[in-house]
């Protein structure tokens, strides 16, 4: 299969390219510098030259604070950019895999969110990503929308200064005697390599639509950090951060746990408990 990967130099995009290459697919890597998805003419020219059978869009403006500061750019990339990809992909009769986020929900639930639950984003990032989902629904006949959560991987995260949460905790443990981590947000830490493998498997299906795609189980960021240190054999004083320790101008969902209901009902779910993915990453 001929596959075009948008955002191919990103944390997730690099693993997506690797997994499709392992599957003996013809992979065309379109980096952030090469492909500005907010430009319809540019993305049309690139995709029409490649003429892929499958487009995987991992490109996004996902620095939450910067989205809040510059909603125009956030909307241009996360919404209009996705619209552009969906329109051109449909013209080429290509299937589209679009990666979305748990931030489309407000985090007020007390049990994992299902694909059928109504979104209610709290911030600009979540709103623009939800708009992108709607543009895919409107313009792409064959598509997979994948909502995921708390990604980490071996490739640098452009929006976080090159460090994911795991690497940041390991770095800080070498620099400080005590670390304070928030315990007020619950997530499902998801390995980019596991998500990439799930995308490859899903791309072989014709069960199109909206999917939740995260590791099984959940934890707070504090519990995530504690497991990182336990598995790494690192001794460091770890404390729960006070509400005012890390002030943020952006409202974030306190509960971002997603249930992979659709993957399970279609028999396509490949995810394991989040601790297994973390062990593989640390090894």
Give an overview of the whole structure.
With 283 residues, this protein is an alpha/beta fold. The chain contains ten helices and twelve strands. Helices cover 41% and strands 17% of the residues. It has a six-stranded parallel sheet with strand order 2-1-3-4-5-10, with helices on both faces. A two-stranded parallel ribbon has the order 6-9. Strands 7-12 form a two-stranded parallel ribbon. Helix 4 (71-91) packs parallel to helix 5 and helix 8 packs across helix 10 (274-282).
Mean pLDDT: 92
Instruction: Work out the number of β strands.
Output: 12
CATH superfamily of the domain at 2-153 and 190-217 and 257-272: NAD(P)-binding Rossmann-like Domain
- Globular, elongated, flat, extended or rod-shaped: what is the shape? globular
What is the CATH C-level name of the domain at 2-153 and 190-217 and 257-272? Alpha Beta
Strand arrangement within the widest β-sheet reads: 2-1-3-4-5-10
Rg value:
18 Å
- The stretches of 5 or more residues where confidence is low (pLDDT under 50) are none
The end-to-end distance, rounded to whole angstroms, is 32 Å
Which architecture of the domain at 2-153 and 190-217 and 257-272 would the CATH scheme give at its second level? 3-Layer(aba) Sandwich
Q: Tell me about the biggest sheet?
A: 6 strands, parallel
Order of helical and strand elements: EHEHEHHEHEEHEEEHEEHEHH
Defining traits:
alpha/beta; Rossmann fold; two-stranded parallel ribbon; six-stranded parallel sheet; globular; 10 helices; single chain; 283 residues
Q: How is this fold's topology laid out?
A:
Layout (H helix, E strand, L loop, with lengths): L1 E5 L4 H12 L3 E5 L9 H11 L3 E4 L6 H6 L1 H21 L3 E7 L22 H16 L3 E6 L2 E2 L12 H11 L2 E4 L4 E2 L2 E2 H12 L5 E4 L6 E2 H12 L4 E4 L20 H5 L8 H9 L1
Parallel strand pairs: 1-2, 1-3, 3-4, 4-5, 5-10, 6-9, 7-12
Antiparallel strand pairs: 8-11
Helix pairs in contact: 1-7, 2-4, 4-5, 6-8, 8-10
């Amino acid at each position: 299969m001929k596959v075009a990967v948008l955002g191919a130099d990103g944390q997730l995009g690099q693993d997506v390219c690797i997994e499709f290459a392992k599957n003996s697919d013809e992979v065309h890597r379109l980096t952030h510098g090469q492909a500005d998805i907010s430009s319809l003419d540019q993305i049309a020219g690139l995709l029409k030259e490649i003429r892929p059978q499958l487009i995987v869009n991992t490109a996004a403006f996902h620095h939450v604070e910067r989205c809040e500061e510059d909603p125009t750019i956030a909307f241009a990339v996360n919404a209009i950019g996705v619209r552009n990809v969906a329109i051109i992909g449909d013209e080429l009769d290509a299937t589209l895999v679009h990666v979305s986020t748990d931030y489309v929900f407000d985090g007020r639930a007390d049990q994992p969110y299902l694909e059928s639950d109504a979104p209610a984003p709290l911030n600009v990032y979540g709103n623009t990503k939800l708009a992108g989902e709607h543009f895919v629904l409107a313009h792409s006949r064959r598509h997979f929308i994948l909502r995921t959560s708390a990604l980490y991987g071996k490739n640098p995260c452009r929006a976080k200064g090159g460090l994911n949460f795991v690497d940041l905790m390991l770095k800080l443990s070498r620099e400080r005697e005590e670390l304070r981590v928030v315990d007020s947000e619950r997530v499902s830490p998801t390995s980019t390599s596991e998500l990439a493998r799930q995308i490859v498997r899903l791309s072989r299906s014709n069960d199109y639509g909206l999917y939740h795609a995260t590791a099984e189980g959940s934890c707070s960021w504090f519990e995530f950090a504690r497991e990182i240190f336990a598995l790494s054999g690192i001794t460091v004083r770890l404390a729960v951060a006070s509400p005012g320790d890390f002030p943020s101008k952006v409202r974030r969902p306190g509960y971002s746990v997603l249930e992979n209901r659709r993957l399970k009902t279609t028999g396509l779910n490949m995810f394991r408990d989040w601790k297994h993915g973390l062990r593989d990453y640390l090894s």
